[in-house]
Amino acid sequence: MKADLIRVEAEIGGMRAGLAKARAFAGEDPGNPLYDIVSAELYEKAGRREDAVNLLEKAVAAQPSADPLIGALSSLYARTDDPTKAEAVLNTRLKADPKNIAIRSRLAALYLEQKKYDNAMAEYRRVVAEGSSDAAVLNNLAWLYQQKGDLAKARNLAAQAVAAAPQAPQLEDTLGWILVAQGEADKALTYLSAANLSAPKNPDIQYHLAVALNRLGRTADAQAMLETLLGSGATFSDRTEAEKLLQQLKRG
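-> structure tokens emitted (252 positions)
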């Protein structure tokens, strides 16, 4: 790919050489947003984020309907700790094209990253209503419904996500954890075990699997898993709960 050739040129000859290669390709292929995106990447890698932002802002002004440029600029704003601008550039595009699923999905993911869960849910719901069957979208919306306590909707969406992308550990984990919450640890075990096999170093999956094992009366297995997990020093959101469960199991 030409993007890789630009990156290789930059590795060999430095940022200026990479930028020159990008300009040469752009001259041969005018209007292709790829070259501005990779050039901004080179600027950012060199610690020149302001130049990267300026380049993409000009590119978006010249091509306001170029979704790859808009996505790249929004992501760059987010990485420079400017979430307001990151949201604004996506919302501006959506005003012109409200049914743009790709951009709306980006906005939903941005809200999710910022822990603006109500906003994220609203946007993901619109994406699904527009007919998206993207597994990540379905999975994220399932997780949001789970946080709201609507386990029936969460389970339905998580099952759709797993069907859309079988053997994806993060998706299997979401569905398995929802099933645990619904009191169906036996069914959950199938998904959580598979997820753990695919991603054996994921602490969230290990904790969820330990809980399922405990619910099924397999306390020795649960304790062994928790001891290994907590002994590894891994950090994860439910670490405090995992420590409490391990203490309970040790007390019998």
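The longest helix spans residues 15-28.
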